[in-house]
Records
---
Amino acid sequence: MSAQRPNVIPFRGGDREPAPETRAAEPVHRHHPASARTTAERTPPPPDTAPEPARTRAAAPEPEQSMYAHEAAAPVDERTGPPSRTGPRAVPAEQDPTSASPAAGRAAPFDDWAGHAFDDAERDAVYRAIRERRDVRVGFRSDPVPDDVLTRVLEAAHQAPSVGHVQPWDFLVIDSPDLRARVRDLAQAERDDHTRSLPSIRARAFSGLKVEAILDSPLNIAVTVDPTRGGRHGQGRHAQPASAAYAAALAVENLWLAARAEGLGVGWVGFVDERDVADVLELPSHLDVVAYLCVGYVEEFPTEPELSLAGWAKGRPLSWAVHRDRYGHRGLPGQEPTSLLEETITAIGGLNPRAVEEARDRQNRMTKPPGSLGVLEEVSVQLAGLAGECPPPIPEPAAVAVFAGDHGVHAQGVTAWPQEVTAQMVQNFLEGGAVVNAFAEQVGAEVTVVDVGVVGDLPRAAGLLPRKVARGTADFTQGPAMTRAQALQALEGGIEVARDLVSAGNRCLITGDMGIANTTPAATLVCALTGADPARATGRGTGVDDDMHEHKVEVVRQALAANPVDRSDPIGVLAALGGLEHAALAGFVLGGAALRVPVLLDGVIAGAAALVASAISPESMSACFAGHRSSEPGHTIALEHLGLRPLVDLEMRLGEGSGALLALPLLQGSARALRNVATFDDAGVSTVH
């Protein structure tokens, strides 16, 4: 291999013309505490001074990845105060060009990858800064940030990558108490508005969170972006018009990591409208605010993200985010790629026998006659076994996911309602005007609507997850309702929704559905998976008359005849006879079970989906609780087949998640009783002789 490689820009430390030594005047910044450091302390060492040995620490071992592991690495010693020396760090002298080192006079050999790597101490320091970066909201100290420290942090931010090297960012350092107070007022108003939009349980938890430190930190920094910088011919801009904003976000990350290395905390103020902030700061109209940051030294860095410590949200394991060749084909480097469904099934397990035994023992020792709480005692035992601990956590906050889709069998006249009602009801859910919204507000649950197969286009809206697999299913009296690929996509879409809701801090998942004509495929699935006769399993759905009901039963028979299925292949059964919302709900059940979170089932649509989930993974039923019994006859058949006992039986048949929401307080009450009721020994109450 030749000593020189033409047309290669030399790396730092390689052969290059030495730049003439220059030295800018030391900037004076009002944050610099003159009394704390002398001029000599701020002066960099002369060029012949040996660099100060770096203070390093071996990186803590990373926790093993698992479906449930959200714990951060073990805490490390923090540098929480101003550094002992504030001058620019000493830089090792340039390599002697005549040295025999491979880095002298040429770039590292192509096959010598280690020649480009940092040494262990440097690499550990980089990864430590990444691992211990935190969004800090509390504990800022009043110590000012020295000028040279702030300059180094801003220089690091300015080194961020950008398409076309246009560097579209600017950094506005904000000292003015008046400006900061005005931004704080904006944040407080936005916080109050957000609090009013939250379910009651979430609102109470949110009231205890500090979400900004605008006045507490010694300085604020607004990071802006100029989308026009570089002109119309900036490299890459024609293909990636949003690249400027992405680059500015990378500058924010660089700033954050450099600040952590300097012992500075950074807090991102999320509760402000960037347009309002731009007005307060009197920014030119062509600039947008990307981030408003609070910066300063802190008393300590949290061992985990503050929202995680508060139970508001959980981190997502790396294994959820790494895909190989195609989205959904997951696998960490060195591991065999697998599908999300396979990964989820592998993670599902049964109840923890130790926790089950402890819960039963505690029920027998609580200050009440044994068995006096009836079904709720077994519910609490199941919750303990699912959580693996006694007492189990209270299943709150809770989220109901309403999966929406349309059905080709609607063309067979199985309902009097027009198909466009599906999309209209989705809009009603999003506007808060449906029964599911009223019941969710009553019990403090969050409502999320998921479009997995609505025929029409739905505008983007808060609370709507666009996960459309197809514009409805095919008419299954003429052939399969879905392809196998569509069924799998919808299944995995449901798993993803379960994961997202649990990562957002929810401790209970509730099934909901919307789809005109969806009770027809539900009844067909019940027949296919239990062997029930269509006349026994098919109900009146939205209230059809006798003639239409008789026709509906015949349509179910036609679908079964047109699609001979093998019960041992539940995904094949689902694809042939189900709906997109049935498939997504089955995945939702599997996803909750894999995360060991209770899943509260609604009516016949959820019951049919649970039959599919149970056929795929029987142990998934350990996470399931029947919220109510629908008046649809197929639901009773499904519950009996699954061995689930409904908590509520009010002759409801609405769907949406309405019946399960009414049962949520019973589920929560059973766990709270197991947790809070005293035992005979604790209370000093005598037992029967």
---
Amino acid sequence: MTSPSPGRSALTAPIANTISGSPEFTGPVVMAGAVHGDITFPVPTPVVNTPRQLPRSSRLVDRAAERAELDRLLERAGDVPVLVAISGLGGVGKSTLGNAWLRGLRERFPDGQLYGDLRAHAPQGLARADEIAGGWLHGLGVTVVPGTAEERLALLRSLTADRRLVVLLDNAATAAQVRPLLPAGRSVTVVTSRHQLPELSLDDAHMLPLGPLETGPALELLTSALPEQRADREPDQLRELVTLCGGLPLAVRISAALLAARPHTPVTRWVRALASGPLTVLKMEGVSVTQSLDLAYNNLPSPAARNLYGLLALHPGTSVTRGAAAALLSPGTDHARADTAMGELIGHHLVTEIAEGRFTFHDLVREHATTRSALLSEADKAGAVRRLCDYYLSATSQAGHLLEPYRDNLERAYTTQAPREEFSGLDAALTWLEAEQPNLSAVIAMAADQCPESAWQIVDALWPYWLRRRYPQECRDAHQHGLRAAHACGNATGIGRMLTSGALIERRYDPTLSLELLDQAETHFIQQNEPRRAARVPHYRGLTLLALDRPEAATAEFRRAITACEAVDDQRTPALARHNLAGIAYGEGQYETATTYAGRARHALTEIGDTLNASLADALWGRAELALGQTDMAARHLSAAARGLRAVSAHRHLATVLVELGELHENHRRDPGAARDYYREAHALHTSTHNTTAATELERRMAAVSPDTCTARASLD
């Protein structure tokens, strides 16, 4: 600005205003040489707008449980701001759920709806907080938005302090992106992200992980986009299609769009295409399941997590333990390092933790991980599979030893330094075996082709478990794989073990094959100069002859086994043979003979620490005593058997003995309360082992047991 020239009156001199530089004016400006009187600068008051910025809402199917959880959260909050972080796999419906729920709150939060896309995966990069804030200020009626980030965010806090708003922050990358944009007042904010944002818990956020849809809702989503007549024409095929999509809404929507574009193409053709290569089918211009999963994979923080992602696809089962993950990752990897990598996969929703230390893939994610494993070198893949097989060999061997410490357990041969599974005790080992049952068959089949030396050893290690839990077809298949693997690597010990245990399995299903396998085993042991193992074969043959209902021939084989095994100082097999002779005598009504054999068997088996078979001998002894009318002796032996079977978690055998104790108390001791207790425990065991027929029968018996029925039976005895 210039001043009047010297000597001229300030009132008559012309005034000139000059502005230099690069000033920025953010409000009204008056420039004058002189100002007289009161001057008022009118500052425009912001127009109070009610923004409706939420994007167009997609169809929301189901999610009733999640919406109910959000409603409960809102009710509990009272006057406190609500912050929810919805996380899940790309395309699982996070934005759809958040949008639909916030729209339903319009009457309770009447001051507006704000929306910001934080662009976690956009090519143009992450959105800045001040960029989002500028759009929100315009929406709230601010005509002149401050230029600096600090001023914008401060003004945003002022304008939201007394408003009741709903806010949707979509596609967040980090908690730091979110925090500056949280409204100051009594508002509800939903943040969506493809990975967990645990740091937002420090801001009192409620974490809501979102999974795929169940089959029914996924089918509803699919059929809602198709003509009614087409949905009615091929319902089974459509159900199979959504199953192949794994309930992922993105996959279902793409399928619906593709079907709608080809109205004359049978759904069966789409089903076949999905089954053969889902990721090649589930794509349209600008969107695909592969693209979504690529983004999640590329955003993994560490090379270890990206490496583990591909390696997990090499596991042939349905779930993976932390120990198996450590084995796959690299030689010498401990559980802690594997946990860190697995945590990153969980955080990005590429893996789901279904139980403590147990993880699984979504089907489409597994397919994507398989494409990543294909990029690994053959040497890396082979090494990972060997380590995985060694991990399972270690775990099953330790579990088998806990189940039968007295068994002739072999020294195992490992090919790698894979991490070992450690069990705290028998129950922990059984829990692991039960959880791993769906995986074990797949691992054995894979190992038979790729690691045969491990395959037959895993089958051998599982034998004590299979004696307690009957998985007939799985066990038969495993022994066929094991025998093939033992022959493939030329391991004589493995061949003998697979022949004998395989024969014992087949005696229940194909006794003729069982006898053939035992003949091969006996010849094999003689050729290998293994007299102890050859001496046991007559005992196994006797068991098969019993299955063929040939008790006389079986008796001869059991006696032959006793003589042969005692000659080579084998104490256990003669005891087992006497137990079986007791069973034959009991079946023929020779109860005194049965008690003699059962008693000798029980004492010998107890001496060598075979609690399972000693308990089974006690149970047979008790049955024989009951048949002789010795109720007290029968109760004593049956109770001892139940204690022993509980100690070794032999649930199937324990349930049988408990029923017998219940019958004894119901029919002989006239104690309906005790009878019901035994039946109730047996019922729980049958239920836990999925024996629904036996469980239903026990329900009928428990209902029938009463003091009146016991009295009536007493009068009839």
---
Amino acid sequence: MSRFRTLRRAWFDEIAEELAWLLEDLSPAVASAVPKDLGPRNLVSATVLARVAQADMECQEIAFVAGDLVRLAGEQGVRAPERVEEVEELWTALREPTVPLLRSWWREPLGEGLLAHWAEIRAEEVGWTRVHQDLRERWVLDSDGIWRRGLMPAEAPDGDWRGFFDHLEAVTSGQEAAYARMLVTRWPSLAAEIEAFASEKADELAAVPHLDLVHRERALADALTAVAAENLVQGGGELPADLRAVLRSIRDTGKSYLAWLDGEFTERLTPLERAYLALGAADAARCEAYLRQYAEIWCAPESGTLPTPVFTEEDYAPLKPAERPRAVAPEWMAMVAKVYSEDAQFGWTGTVGSQPWWLYVAESGIESAAAMRFKHDGQVRIGHRTLDDPHDMLVGLPPDDPHAQNLIMRFRYDVEDLHEMCELLVLARAGRVRLGFLVRDTGGGFRVLRVVSVPMPPALREAMRGKALRALDAMTGVDPRKLAVLIAPEAGGPAAEDVDDAWRDAVDGGLFPRGDTLF
């Protein structure tokens, strides 16, 4: 087994063990029902925990999640209603701050990545035919879901991994590798430049040995390719013919190696590994550093989090009115709703735990009816004036929906507020926000009508990330370490926040933007 594969297997084993222990701690009942006939139990337990956490973030129907656990357990399964209570308890526990990998911006790559790794490990034991059968019957994935996730046998095994020098030796005459090594050995400045470039990465990537290895080989190949190309340009016809041939070979081989590394090789990695590997870029590393500073203060286990409902009025709709529990909003939500109910169209933005949240108070009648239709077919309309304004969004039903004009919500993050720019960055990385609709009841209090998960379009996520990064850089002097002091918690909570008059007055009566809107 290659060094890369050895490091990779050890890293996944470490993650699986940590999450398996966490599942046992958070929900012994779910942990005890993890099947023993699907391969390494720690890995299966970790994958179960990650996918249940992902399901909560996506606001999946709790009965379906409970049913999936029953099917996964196979012969160990129990009746689904019993699992509903267990899933509710686990979701409630997962909304409290926990290990970094279970923060909102890691949940999707973690859930998909562990499932992909399980499929690889299981296939080594029983073959891909049986793996696909288990994915359909036990993990409840259809053929399209399996195909979209790329859960197929790889055309080439991970053992084909090669560092850049090894690749040069394998595909060239051998002179190229010797010359490339000589460049690094005899030019200390070049070696120092490569090391500095390779070190400009997020701490999270540095903690993943096999991906740090890939990142360093990319830096080496990129630098030597650039040096060979520059020498060919500067030397022109004055260079000896054999040296020009060697430089051309290093340049061309370097380009093909980088293309393979960023294309075919990276595509074979799991979504979790690709998310880590993306932290090798300087701006991505800085984004992660800001998120780390933010999370250490606002997502620390000792800080706790505000209560959020698992069930809403929508979940009780099939029951007769007399049988429905009164889904009263948590106190903090009611206090936020009291402030924002006075401002038509505007909603509250924030982060609870590590999960992005929006709250919107719908008027009883036409607007609340439209809120019940929101995302009924999976379609959502999100608009903003230009790509420079991804922090200021109008959200509603698709334009062809008959209720489109009955529900138009505005959510805005303040570009001059460090905390809100951190929250915009969290939203960009998480890729989805939990939107809670509240309505006023006859007694003057507030109830949670429903909660939905709203995914952000990829182009909008990228624009959000860029906007938040530029704002945070400007306010911290491009030093993420300063963030910890600047966003230290103050007395008071969300209820103490007043609606910002500056942007409240900026409402111009316009609805969704025109041609430059992203949806």
